[in-house]
Amino acid sequence: SLLNGDERLLSGKKVIVTAGGTIERIDPVRYITNDSSGKMGFAIAKVAQELGADVHLIAANTSAEPPVGISIEKVQSADDMYSAVLRQWEESDLVVMAAAVADYRPREAAQTKIKKKDSTFTLELVKNIDILESLGRSKKHQFLIGFAAETGNLETYAMDKLERKNCDLLAANDVTADGAGFGVDTNAVQIYDRGGMVERIPVQSKEEVARKLLTIAAGRMGGVL
Ligand code: CTP
Ligand code: CA
């Protein structure tokens, strides 16, 4: 059969994937976001579906072509993404937080366009909820994968995030490395668990990275249904 062995590693599993950069409103025509293209999250959603999972893709701001055949729940802010994830959380088996969630948002989103006035303008930001950390605190049967985009000290930051957010696996990449990070079709990641580095995945397509990451996760998740 075509549908056996490695092909259906996530058969019967419900998987939530978040992708893209959240949009934090300043006013009706302006917002804060980041360079995330959504490509890594889209690749994970596509491969998870190929591996037999029931995929729920939640995407904020993206520039990449969305995967065909997977419906997308569109969200804007970190708060919106958190609500969307929570609606699926109880029933999910695996959550992959590939989204670049904004750390801060404007204290208030103005209801009308802010007019130009003085020579300086101060925008006050307040911290967003950490979605992954919150899931890490309330997880039961769920398997949690976090991402970390870093510009150095990969291992230190990765291990810190993994523990702080109670993740099962964390995929860290150096966004300054060639062929890794934002906008490009390739990535290179190091995968960590509680004991340290599990695997170093050299530069390859984001789909191949997704396949390796999900294969490791599937091998560690609870028994096949
Ligand atoms: N994350 C999240 N909610 C946030 C911020 C981050 O769920 N408000 C998730 C990301 O989706 C990612 C992981 O946490 O899976 C790590 O994100 P990262 O930005 O690297 O970590 P931070 O804890 O925000 O630390 P810093 O930005 O200071 O490096
Ligand atoms: Ca952050």
UniProtKB/TrEMBL annotation:
Organism of this sequence: Paenibacillus terrae
Family affiliation: In the C-terminal section; belongs to the PPC synthetase family.
- Range covered out of full length: 212 to 436 of 437
User: What does the UniProt keyword field contain?
Assistant: Decarboxylase, Flavoprotein, FMN, Ligase, Lyase, Magnesium, Metal-binding, Multifunctional enzyme
Q: How is the cofactor bound?
A: Binds 1 FMN per subunit.
The protein's Enzyme Commission number: 4.1.1.36, 6.3.2.5
- Swiss-Prot/TrEMBL catalytic activity: (R)-4'-phosphopantothenate + L-cysteine + CTP = N-[(R)-4-phosphopantothenoyl]-L-cysteine + CMP + diphosphate + H(+); N-[(R)-4-phosphopantothenoyl]-L-cysteine + H(+) = (R)-4'-phosphopantetheine + CO2
Q: Please give an example of a GO cellular component term from this record.
A: phosphopantothenoylcysteine decarboxylase complex
The UniProt function text for this chain reads: Catalyzes two sequential steps in the biosynthesis of coenzyme A. In the first step cysteine is conjugated to 4'-phosphopantothenate to form 4-phosphopantothenoylcysteine. In the second step the latter compound is decarboxylated to form 4'-phosphopantotheine. Catalyzes two steps in the biosynthesis of coenzyme A. In the first step cysteine is conjugated to 4'-phosphopantothenate to form 4-phosphopantothenoylcysteine, in the latter compound is decarboxylated to form 4'-phosphopantotheine.
The prosthetic group or cofactor this protein requires is: Mg(2+); FMN
Which stretches make up the DNA/pantothenate metabolism flavoprotein C-terminal domain?
A: 10-216
Q: In which pathway does it act?
A: Cofactor biosynthesis; coenzyme A biosynthesis; CoA from (R)-pantothenate: step 3/5; Cofactor biosynthesis; coenzyme A biosynthesis; CoA from (R)-pantothenate: step 2/5
Show the segment(s) annotated as Phosphopantothenate--cysteine ligase: 15-225
What name does UniProt use for this protein?
A: Coenzyme A biosynthesis bifunctional protein CoaBC
